[in-house]
Amino acid sequence: MNACALKRVSKLIVGAITILGLASCATEGPQGADLSAGVASRQQILPTDLPPMKAFASSRIEPSTRPNSQVAGDFLDLAFDLESGRSLPVLSRFEGPVTLAVRGPASAATEADLDRLMSRLRDEAGIDIRRATGTGGGAAPASITVEVIRKQELQRLVPHAACFVAPNVSSWDEYRLSRRTAKTDWTRLTTRERMAVFLPGDVSPQEIRDCLHEEIAQALGPVNDLYRLPDSVFNDDNFHTVLTGFDMLILRAYYAPELASGMTREEVAARLPALLARLNPAGGTGAPNPRTTTPVAWKDSIETALSGGGTSAARREAALRAVDLARSYQWDDTRLAFSLFALGRLQLGVNSDIALAAFREAEAIYEAEPATRLQAAHMGVQLAAHALSMGNAETAIRITDSHLPAVMHAENAALLATLLMIKAEALDIQGRDAEAQLVRLDSLGWARYGFGSDAEVEARLHEIAAIAPGHHRS
Fold first, then answer.
1. CB distance 253 to 259 below 8 Å
2. Predicted structure pTM score
3. Any idea which architecture 11-55+293-467 has in CATH?
4. pLDDT digits (tens, 9 = 90+) for 436-474
């Protein structure tokens, strides 16, 4: 699609933390306990008023630790290719200070998250980005316009988008008139002057924040995603949703004085070694290291598996094919692990042995590298839920505790809340009711940010309670 860089709905499979299918594979808990019995016994612990929404106040982002030769190869593929496979003839970026304006009903949480993001872009990426002033009347449009609209309206025009960025427009109305024309064709872009980010305002605060991070980053820099990246938002697996140290290095390089709009891939490649050595001395020097292109056959299998279309059986077959292809390519990286994750997700409620084996193998791959501890936590939530469903409280607590630091560091409130809810239920099983209540209240504050509405928060709490074997309090 030439009109925009999409954050596709299919990418949100990771954000939608499904755990009930795995637990439901076991029909009985210890001593034949009915797994649904926990719901009634836990009604009494649901608070009548949810605690205030929690939010992440500060970021602790470590710089990239990758060799510069590898970073350079990633930079070139991110900057000169589109997700569609088309190539970009030249580098394009904003030249000079960048202004940003917000249109539409942005919440206080969204405004706060946007301010934090812009502060990080200034401090970590060295980009001169500020809020636009005097945007009314005859004032020039902002460099980047963030327009908040209803999800239904956004997907009526672009059905498979959760949010997206488009070039050379400053409003939703202007985009509607210009989509699929030369005006919004990324391949015709030489210098960026106007970009528009469109995102829904009627989803959870975390979903809005995730869109802000990815789409504003793409409005400024790369519009490509690479499955091979373990520590980046520029990855279709969507595990990382907050800009990482690697992402900030890529953006800092994008706006380094050594580069300029209109430079070809060859011209940029020639300047990258010295440029990255200056920005990232720990990464050493060296020419860009060409990276192996991810085969189309594997991409097609993954996208079929994660798509909302097709039968469940066809999607499971596609996930299995992705695993087989990854093994045939002798991958032992995040692409094999992601294939296993997709397979495990699609086997939830179908075959618990396959699902558990896939999650465990994926977890082992992800845990082997510090850069993929967040991905390991997504496997851990499945395994902790299974342990809880079997009444193995100690195991469930151990698993959740082992993954909480990585999840907090990545600022994933939805995953954090889910892990804490599982831990609270496990503490209840052990009879540690006071501790369980404190952990549960903590989870609810994060859940309000991660899941949004009170109804969604309470539904998730009930779902977790339904997993645990029934027990009664005196």
1. yes
2. 0.89
3. Alpha Horseshoe (1.25)
4. 999 999 999 999 999 998 999 999 999 999 998 874 443
